[in-house]
Amino acid sequence: MTTTCKNCGKPVSENYCAHCGEKINLPRINGTFIFSEIADNINLKKGFLYTVKELIIRPGKTARIFLLENRKKIIKPITFLIVCTFIFGIMDNFLFPSGLSISESSELKTKEFHDNEAVMELLKKSKDYISYINIIFSIFISFWVKYIFFRKHSYSFWEVAVVLFYIGGIQMLISSIFLIINYSTSHDYSIIGTFIGIIYSVWVLGQFFNGKFKSYFHAFLSILLGYLSLIIIGLTLLVFIIVIAGINGHL
Description:
Strand content: under 5%
Number of strands: 2
Helix content: over 70%
Radius of gyration: 23 Å
C-alpha cells in the first residue's frame, strides 16, 4: 500500500520514507517515549553500565582508547560525571532528606557554629552543587598532574581533565553505595568510601601513565595536593562567610 510521507510529501510504500527517513506511523508520546528520548540523548541505554564496567575493570586503558581511538563506545566524560552525581543526589535526598548525613548531623550538634545559619546553609548547598565541585576538583588535580608530576607526557591539560571526570563519576557511585550502607547501619562509614575513592584514583592515573611505580606515586601526590588545594580554598571561603555573617549579626 502506497501512502504519502507527511514530512516531505513523497510517495512511500514502506514503514520509513526512503527520501527523508521519517517513520510513517509515529507512535503516541507516553512515559516510555520520554524515558527513551532522555536515555538516547545521554547514551544511557547502550553506554552507562558498559562505561561503569570498563572504568572498573580497565580504567586507564579505557581512558586512553577514548582519547586516542574511539569516542563512541563509552559515555562522554562530563555527561558521565553529571549522571553519576545526579544518582548520588537522588539517593542522598531520599535517604537523608534533612540535607545532612549521619556524621554531619551529630558533629554539628557539638560545634559552636551549629546555630550559624549561613554555615549550615553552606553545608547543605555544597551538596546541591556537588557536580560543579567535582569538576573544579578535577581541574585542580589536572593542574598538578599536567604541569608538575607528568609534564613530560604529551597529554594536554584537558585530556588529563577528561580522565579525572571519569574518576569523579566512579567516586560518586562509590559514595552512593556508602550512603546506602550508612542508612542501613545508622553508622557513618563514608571515610572508608573516601579512601576507596582515593585508591581508585591513584590506580587509574598510575595505569593511565604507563603503570610504573613512579607513576602511581606521582598520581598519589597529585591527588593529595589537589585535595589540599580544594580544602584551603574551601576553608578560606568558609571563614569569609563566618566573618561576614558575624559582622551582619552585630549590625
